[in-house]
Amino acid sequence: MRPNDMRIAYVINSVEGGGAASPVPDIADVIHGTGAKIRIFALTRRDGRALDAIAKAGIDVVVRNGGLKDHVAAFRWLDREIRAWRATHLWTSLTRATLLGQIVGTVRRLPVVSWQHAAFLKPANEKLLRLMARRSVLWVADSQQVAELTELRLRVPSEKLVTWSIFAADPVAPQAQAWREGAPFIIGSLGRLHRVKGYDVLITALARLQAQGFAAPVPFRLQIAGDGAEGKALATQIREAGLTNVELVGFTANPLDFLAMLNGYVQPSRSEGFCIAAHQAMQAGLPVIASAVGELAYTIEPGVNGLLVPSNDPEALAGALQSMLSDPLRARRWGNAAREKILGTYSRERFETIGRQIISRLAALQ
Predict the structure, then answer these.
(1) 317-339 CB burial, b ≥16 within 10 A, e <16
(2) What's this model's pTM, rounded to 2 decimal places?
(3) Nearest Cα to 187, choosing from 271, 253, 243?
(4) Is 96 within 8 Å of 43 (Cβ atoms)?
(5) What dotted CATH number matches 185-345?
């Protein structure tokens, strides 16, 4: 089969902003560039914040009017849509979309390609994915660590596993302005207000610095951009800790502009896959302090372009923050090195080359 004859149904859990939906336009653009046709099928809408970017990219998208747990109804809908669109391949992302896509693929005798984005899987999901792993002709991991975990946990053989990082660096994206002497040093973070992002650990770390009487040579502020279920609990934690320089700024529709206003970045996550936000921060020329999880453990070189700390360790995180704040000029050098690393490692050319290779491999299967 030639790529021009391929009709790829890209099945995703939702069109929620951030997370696995955010790179969909770039991925779809590469697939479309090979000559293959592509349409997005979302099992539910959720907040719908990813729809604008998908529409601007000119990608067809169909969103089911359904919930998160009505799996039988979701399967029937997906089966009807796949049949009506005359798909030749299914491309799935995350557990629910992957399992339902694998079943539809088996029923319709269509090859299935499955993304793995998660460094952490719920035990039940891991078991189900392992049982169904052979239903996918190819697995695509979004990072080196996720590739290793996919091979280990799901027992996917290496010959059926490809790593395609879900981030393509943009050399003309907004860059952070250099910190100016006398100005406050602004640290930021982007992410859902969810326990996995570790913002409670970050607030605890800052409270410890305050209790220890740490006096940074320059005033500093922390801004967390995002919304989610943990918002009220985090606001209470900030207030009870007496942290007057910490702000929850809410959802931002322009994350790159938000990053460009910062002088440093922190990603205190308990678990990550690739973590696009932290890589975007490095792209902007920001020094990054991050938990040593997911792809961050590979990208960040401690003392060169940022600092790594163990996850869920407020004491270590407090020490890293103190190190960054104690020498803003050194932090700026880390940020410059971070940008160089990102532009060299995650180039658009490399991103597109790997995507085209995957499509060629799929085309050769039929």
Answers:
(1) bbbbbeebbeebeebbebbebbb
(2) 0.90
(3) 243
(4) yes
(5) 3.40.50.2000
